[in-house]
Structure formats: C-alpha cells, structure tokens
Write the structure tokens for this entry.
Amino acid sequence: SQLEQRQEYRINNQLTVIIELDSSADGEPTLVVSNSLDISANGLRAIAPQAVPTNNILRCCIRESHSDRQFLLVAEVKWCQPYGHAGDYIIGLSLFDSEGTDIVMWKEFIAQSVTGTH
C-alpha cells in the first residue's frame, strides 16, 4: 500500500490524540478523543469516534498513556474515512513545524522511540 511505501519510520505506540475542532456557536471547542494507529515525526493516523472535517488546520494534544507526557501540536486533517464496523473513522494528520508548539519535543520523542525498538 502507499502507506507502507513511505520512507519515514512509523511507530505503533498507543497514544491518545485529542483533536480540538473549531468552536461551536457557544464558543466551546469540540474535543474529539482518538487513539493513534501509527505515528511518525511528521504525522500520524488515528482512530476517532466521529468524522473530522478534512483540510482543516487544528490544534491537537497527544498524550502518552503510561506517562504524563503530552505534546501540543498543530496539524492538518488530510483525510478521514470510515473504519471498521463500530462507526469509527480513521483520520490522517499532517503535523506542522509551528512556533509555540511541542513539535521539536515530538520529533525527539519519535527519534527515541525508533532507537528504542531495535
């Protein structure tokens, strides 16, 4: 598949990905809690309980389940498609090198994860 042909290393750490959708009318953002399927330095795929609009640039918080580490990142939703039979969706997120986010820490985390698996 195309995903397998990507050069960048993908890791199967189970992370919680909290995606912040645009604020609704009352000003409260909608939080979609999803689970990462695989992750890389520049993006990730996640399983979400609802569809997420594509071509949107959103804030997201990625949390490691077995520690208190979390990364605040900015991502673009590249695609979203139904997944499985439980009404879930699989989403593709592309991460931005944005000032004021944890992207540098994230890339270090990915690098440590890659070296730690061999």
Observations:
- The helical segments are 2-5, 103-116.
- The CA atoms of residues 73 and 101 lie 5 Å apart.
- The chain has two helices and six strands.
